[in-house]
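[Discussion] Sanity-checking designs against the backbone

I'm trying to build intuition for which residues belong where. Below is a structure token string of 385 positions. I'd appreciate it if someone posts a full sequence so I can compare it with mine line by line.
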């Protein structure tokens, strides 16, 4: 009650609340939500410090300092707002943010770790920040592209039932695991089920994806587009998550209106939304909306998509920035995405391009360069969805 009185008496709008607590066993329970209700305009730190009474004597100054050091998240994502928190480990905490909170609630944006080149999803699994898109790759071209990507250190592969190449992707991954000794757990494969008949019979469609890929489990499954059966299909994916056959689930081609209607109807917060994003179609209003829900954003057509790449890669603003860094236009565009917190999955069957598209971490765009690229937005979609 003392805390209630304090929060009712003072306006903490714009302030940051960093919670710490001692408790018998319950931890924060609903306290952070209650603080969030009373102080909706305050930022509430996502990593509170929770010490059980029984452990108080064992807590050292070092423990507290480690906790404080880990709070740089506040500098990086000042928009972070209310979220349940814990000291029980980054992964469990992150997992709870997605799976325990109500889908649709604002929570903390996921943090891109440029050292490990991974992001922690709200499902508790880490996903690489750059991958290979396989749309329009078939047969040996697809197998070779995926193997070339894996040889060059790429660990994220995007496919879909609609691409008709899940079997090739699965074969390439299995062969690369065997030939290069890459453990299955290091590779992150995304696939998608399609509207219409696939979403009308989702269990069979999901199982068919698992069978075609033949990789034991799928790291991420997305609904490819909104559909009249999308809630039913998503709930089927939730069951496959419970059964351990899918690790994370998400959506593709879902924008603000679609997400607002969809999220309250499902139990597991999507871990990912994959949408069209490139300098000519930036989605600057949609990206923060998604990220503030603790959902990671991934961009398709990062290079503009086939038929549009020449114009985008030849854009004088982008080529100028590329020349200043001794990088290619493709690398600058991909890096611009990463610095906006958008995961990239450029498509390519060219081993040189595949390698080039991995070299994104040894340079950084300045704020002015980011602003120059942001100014190229034309709201120009390169596909209908
Ligand atoms: P993209 O990545 O924007 O562009 C691919 C084109 O760029 C290819 O023609 C490729 O040619 C070229 N390219 C790649 N790297 C290059 C480089 N470093 N320098 C010069 N050219 C380069 O388009 P996308 O592959 O269609 O889209 C990316 C991925 O997003 C897809 O593969 C798919 O996985 C996903 N996607 C999802 C949806 C959805 O609805 N969820 C829709 C579309 C796409 P080369 O082969 O010669 O390198």
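Best answer:
Here's mine. Compare freely.
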């Amino acid at each position: 009650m003392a805390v209630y009185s304090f929060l009712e008496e003072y306006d903490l709008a714009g302030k940051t609340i960093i919670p710490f607590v001692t408790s018998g066993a319950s931890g924060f329970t609903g306290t952070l939500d209650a603080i969030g209700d009373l102080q909706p305009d305050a930022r509430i730190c996502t990593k509170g410090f929770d010490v059980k009474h029984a452990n108080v004597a064992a807590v050292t100054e070092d423990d507290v300092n480690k906790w404080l050091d880990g709070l740089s998240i506040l500098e990086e994502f000042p928009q972070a707002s209310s979220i349940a928190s814990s000291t029980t480990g980054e992964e469990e905490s992150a997992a709870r943010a997605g799976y325990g909170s109500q889908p649709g609630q604002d929570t903390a944006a996921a943090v891109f770790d440029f050292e490990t080149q991974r992001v922690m999803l709200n499902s508790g699994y880490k996903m690489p920040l750059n991958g290979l898109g396989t749309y329009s790759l078939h047969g040996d071209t697809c197998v070779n592209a995926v193997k070339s990507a894996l040889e060059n250190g790429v660990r994220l592969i995007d496919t879909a039932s609609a691409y008709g190449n899940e079997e090739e992707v699965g074969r390439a991954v299995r062969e690369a695991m065997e030939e290069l000794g890459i453990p299955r757990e290091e590779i992150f494969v995304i696939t998608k089920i399609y509207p219409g008949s696939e979403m009308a019979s989702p269990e069979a469609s999901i199982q068919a994806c698992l069978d075609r890929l033949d990789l034991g489990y799928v790291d991420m499954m997305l609904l490819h587009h909104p559909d009249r059966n999308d809630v039913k299909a998503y709930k089927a994916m939730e069951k496959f998550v419970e059964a351990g056959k899918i690790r994370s689930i998400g959506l593709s081609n879902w924008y603000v209106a679609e997400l607002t209607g969809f999220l309250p109807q499902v139990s597991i917060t999507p871990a990912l939304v994959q949408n069209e994003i490139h300098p000519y179609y930036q989605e600057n209003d949609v990206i923060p909306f998604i990220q503030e829900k603790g959902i990671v954003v991934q961009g398709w057509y990062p290079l503009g998509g086939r038929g549009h790449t020449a114009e985008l890669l030849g854009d004088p603003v982008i080529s100028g920035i590329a020349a200043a860094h001794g990088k290619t236009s493709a690398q600058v565009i991909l890096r611009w995405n990463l610095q906006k917190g958008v995961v990239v999955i450029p498509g390519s069957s060219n081993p040189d391009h595949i390698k080039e598209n991995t070299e994104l971490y040894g340079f950084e765009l300045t704020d002015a360069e980011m602003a120059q690229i942001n100014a190229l937005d034309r709201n120009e979609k390169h596909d209908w969805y």
